[in-house]
Amino acid sequence: MQAHPHDAVAAEPSGDVPVNPATGRLIFGWLLVGLPLAYGVITTLSRVGQLFG
């Protein structure tokens, strides 16, 4: 009789959280897009405030 994969018991985490190398690239990508976007939004809102203020 062979054991099925769904019969296996999952091991408990040891407390160490593995870091996926793609996580750093994802954060870098969001910063690369998000910082100029935030600058543009802030600049636009300040100019709109001058226009209507």
Topology readout:
Blueprint: H1 21-52
What descriptors fit this protein?
single chain, 53 residues, mainly alpha, 1 helix, 60% helix, transmembrane, transmembrane helix
Molecular structure report:
- The protein has 53 residues and is mainly α.
- Helix content is 60%, strand content 0%.
- The protein is built from one helix and no strands.
- The termini are far apart.
- 0% of the residues are buried.
- The mean pLDDT is 83.
- Keywords: Membrane, Transmembrane, Transmembrane helix.
- The chain crosses the membrane at residues 27-48.
The separation of the N and C termini measures 79 Å
Strand content: under 5%
Count of helical segments? 1
Mean pLDDT: 83
Largest sheet: none
Q: What structural class results from the helix and strand content? A: mainly alpha
Shape estimate: rod-shaped
Low-pLDDT ranges: none
Total beta strands: 0
- Fraction of helical residues: 55-70%
Rg estimate, integer Å? 24 Å
Which series of helices and strands comes N to C? H
Keywords: Membrane, Transmembrane, Transmembrane helix
